[in-house]
């Protein structure tokens, strides 16, 4: 009788461990600690300097359900597909995992931007296929973009 009971306890413990591992790797669990969780449903007022144009401002909204399988950026002109930067290395890469850095790409205009989150601010730089470059800072807004 003791043997059967010990086997059931082992199966129950193993099942509990498997459930914890499965939940920890689910998309909803991953989103809680990555940059997406910090950016989603937020708007930012951004100021930029550019090597080809005069300084400019934009309002950025972050959302899901657009171009990217992870999250998107809308600047009222284009929809950029975004992902948090990966972590780990070649043998143990964890994609869309960074809590503070992200990249977004606009395939219509061939433009890539990278960003870092620091509290309620973003620091951003971008480069286009033609060599256009910009740098900017963004501050979280209390209201959505117009």
Report on the structure:
This protein is of the alpha+beta class. The protein contains three helices and eight strands. It has an eight-stranded antiparallel β-barrel with strand order 1-2-3-4-5-6-7-8. The longest helix is centred in the first third of the chain and has 23 residues, at 2-24. The relative contact order is 0.16. Residues 4-31 have low confidence and may be disordered.
Q: What is the CATH-assigned architecture of the largest domain?
A: Beta Barrel
Query: Helicity range of the residues?
Result: 10-25%
CATH topology of the largest domain: Lipocalin
First-residue to last-residue Cα separation:
70 Å
Specify the CATH class of the largest domain.
Mainly Beta
Structural class, judged by helices and strands? alpha+beta
What's the helix count? 3
The geometry reads as globular
The percent range for strand residues is 35-45%
Strand order of the largest sheet: 1-2-3-4-5-6-7-8
How large is the radius of gyration?
Answer: 21 Å
What is the average of the pLDDT values? 81
Low-confidence spans: 4-31
What's the story with the biggest beta sheet?
A: 8 strands, antiparallel, barrel
Please tell me the total number of domains: 2
- Kindly state the number of beta strands: 8
């Amino acid at each position: 009788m003791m043997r059967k009971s010990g086997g059931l306890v082992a199966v129950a413990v193993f099942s509990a461990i498997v459930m914890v591992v499965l939940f920890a790797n689910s998309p909803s669990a991953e989103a809680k600690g990555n940059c997406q969780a910090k950016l989603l449903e937020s708007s930012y007022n951004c100021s930029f300097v550019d090597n080809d144009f005069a300084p400019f401002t934009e309002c950025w909204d972050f959302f899901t359900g657009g171009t990217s399988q992870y999250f998107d950026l809308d600047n009222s002109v284009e929809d950029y597909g975004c992902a948090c930067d990966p972590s780990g290395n070649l043998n143990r890469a964890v994609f869309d995992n960074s809590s503070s850095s992200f990249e977004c790409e606009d395939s219509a205009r061939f433009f890539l931007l990278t960003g870092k989150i620091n509290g309620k601010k973003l620091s951003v730089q971008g480069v286009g296929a033609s060599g256009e470059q910009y740098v900017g800072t963004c501050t979280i807004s209390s209201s959505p973009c117009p």
